[in-house]
Amino acid sequence: MDITTIQEIIREIDGATNILLTAHHKLDPDSTGGILALYLILKKLGKKPVALCYEPVPKNLEFLPHITAIEHDKKLMQDFIITLFNPESDVNEIKYSTTAEGYINIIITPKKGSYSEQDVSFKGMTNKFDLIIVVDSGDKKNMGRLYEENKELFEKTTVINIDHHASNDYFGDINLVDTKVSSASELVYYIIEHMDKGLIDEDVATYLLLGIIADTGSFQHANTTPDSMKVAAELVRRGARQQDIIKNLYKTKKFSTLKLWGKALARLSVDEKARVLWSSLTFAELSQMQAKPEDTKGVIDELMSSAPDVDFIILFTEIAPKTVSVSIRTKSAEVNGVQIAKQFGGGGHVQACGFTKEDVALEELSEEVIAAVQKYQQERLGGPAQTSTQHNPPLGAEERIARRLENDLFR
Ligand SMILES: [Mn+2]
Questions:
Q1: Kind and range of the H or E element at 227?
Q2: Of 248, 270, 285, which marks where a domain is finished?
């Protein structure tokens, strides 16, 4: 951890009063958690923070306390006010003209008498921020309209850049950028830790844990480090409401989505030798459940994280009558899904790809695709030709998936 930079940031915060907090324009759990944690801490320190992001907060984050502290439509640049001492006479006329050099002349004509230089003063002449903290944003452009409309403010004000993206271009005057850290929220934790750990109450702990959980996919992604787990443990100790976070991030599914899962699970098939697991959803089922094709994304994600020892996970979705969309996922980079997708005119990434075919029967297409997978796997893994196709997953697998679904349903 870059202690020098953290200390520099703490010094800047100490010396500032009006602090603007923002993030990349599309708020996500990490940026929202980071902003709110800083907001509350700064308030506790007697500062005057303003949290601002022009895009609305995502629905699943509305459960967070003080979420309304993040404003969406505040205008940042203030009027430039020129005050003229004018005790006796009224103004006859005010007009202005611009010069070729880019100046504005404001011409004030009194009804009587005249003004002198001493009569003029300026008020509210600059924006009121003396520090800007940007959380989880790789560059200035990522802040969207907030930056576009206030470039001057960003140029004139000290900017602190707190981020963990590899693409970060060090746009700040002070940059706390660490790609080895799980999340911007974890970085915010390190700053607060060096200020005073006592500032972390239950709300602050919840915000920061939210960012860490979301960006590590509940400690499943490769960016989960011993440090991120240590910080998470400390946050839980300090009262972070982990169950609230999980419930709102992962356990709040539409009823239609859950019913869709039920259908997909009931039709689960496995070929253990070819190490492929697949399922399908018909157009009639989608319509019946008033589900949209995009609702099936959750189904394949869930199968991916719950499926047992397979290499391929494939979901066939009839998105319109006789039009079938095929999502192919593979569990490791050594298994190239694109090789299958390409045979059917599709493409994508090695581990996540697919295609859509019109004018086909769901059954027929799934048989063709599975045959292609069996052939690919046979060539890859060797061994005798593939013959057996088991249309039920092994008990262990089915049980594990069912238990997971049950958890999601009844929590
Ligand atoms: Mn992040």
A1: helix 226-237
A2: 248
